[in-house]
Amino acid sequence: MNKELEHNFVELLKQHQNIVHKVCRLYTNNKDEHNDLFQEITIQLWRAFPKFRGDSKFSTWMYRVGLNTAITLYRKSKRRIKTYELEPLQFKLKSDEYDDTEEEQLKALYKAVHQLNDIEKALVLLYLEDKDYREISETLGITEVNARVKMNRVKTKLRTILNP
Amino acid sequence: MDELELLKKDWKNKENDYPTLSYDEIYKMIHSKSSSIVKWIFIISMIELGLGLLLALLNPNIDTKIKLPDWTTTLTYLSYPIILFFIYRFYINYKTISATDNVKKLIANIIKTRRTVKYYVLFNVVFGAIIFAVGLYLGFGNSPEVIENLNTTASSKKYLVIIATVVIATALFVGLILAIYYLLYGLLLRRLNRNYKELKKIQQ
User: Chain B, 58-77: which have a CB under 8 Å from a chain A CB?
Assistant: First the structure.
């Protein structure tokens, strides 16, 4: 039974692993931290999996556990050495898609997003993932109205960071 | 174009650029050890709870040379159910911590669990300080050397020195424990408190 549960979980996570990578991408600054957080999220997902009833989609449930781990449970290892800053180019662009000005703008944008606090990053991630305000509010534990207000503030904050 | 819309476009374009972990790699990960903050809070709390319990059990026999008044023994016995209650509360709070709650609830539950142990430590420090102060005072008072000295040169100044010594030593004892405590949890819970404040601020 446990083996079957393990197998189902690993298969599901393998299928949806991009969600975990996306969370890691916003909350970490280098590859080591990314891997570290990925592992911690995987452990937390696995621990919570026996209680997953399927009331929500597996992906929705993953966002919640992933964000909870990144915001609350994850403890950065002090031994980790920063190896490189995460920039859009880390996930390489195909050369024909390359646009210098836009790429510069994106670099600045990713850098600005990394300067946001943990809660603001969660809002940005859910927004980028096309989640509606109901889901954003349920994931964070705030009201829908406040999620909208905060999202607008985050946009303003990003603009301020980009154009000081 | 809106900044976030531009980011979203790029975010979607890179959907397939993330590394892909194999079945075996994920399988290995689920069997690795967690280093979550809850695990650390649990370990540290268990040490605190254990130490408190140990101190409470050893307290009456710490030094038989010092004859503590009967009320301190009664106080010690009364502390046992209080300690057990704290441990029970800690267990209940710890069980409510779930990674599937919303972010705000999860942080609130972790803080609540920590708060139980904080009150437990506070209780132990206050209790310890009382026993420590009484013990120190009686230790001085029962010492033949001190008594003789006081009898011959009894002056209010001497008594003041004794009281001041007891107060300073107790304050140092309490201060040391609180300093260790705040340093440890200040660092461990800093991020958690900051995020909780931010979520509460959004709701205002």
Answer: none
Chain B residue whose CA is closest to A14: B23
- Give me the helices (H) in chain A, please: 2-27, 31-48, 58-68, 100-114, 118-128, 133-140, 144-162
Q: Does A22 touch chain B (CB under 8 A)?
A: yes
Degrees (nearest 5) of the Cα angle A62, B23, A64?
5
Is residue A27 within 8 angstroms of chain B, CB to CB?
no
Token representation of residue B9? 């476009």
Q: Please name the residue that has the structure tokens 């705000």.
A: B104
User: Is residue A92 less than 8 Å (CB to CB) from chain B?
Assistant: yes
Whether the CB of B184 is below 8 Å from some CB of chain A: the reply is no
CATH number of A101-162: 1.10.10
CB pairs under 8 A between A and B: 157
What CA–CA distances, in Å, run from B124 to A162, B119, B127?
51, 8, 5
Domain spans of chain A? Answer: 3-78, 101-162
CB-based contact, B4 to chain A, within 8 Å? yes
Query: Given B4, B32, B100, which is nearest A64 (Cβ)?
Result: B100
**pLDDT tens sequence for chain B (204 residues):** 577 888 899 998 888 888 899 999 999 999 888 888 888 888 888 887 787 777 767 655 555 555 667 777 787 788 888 888 988 988 899 899 998 899 999 999 998 988 888 888 888 888 877 877 777 777 666 666 666 666 666 566 777 787 788 788 878 888 887 788 778 777 778 888 888 888 888 877
**A3-78: in CATH 3.40.1280.10:** no
Q: With a threshold of 0.90, does the pTM exceed it? A: no
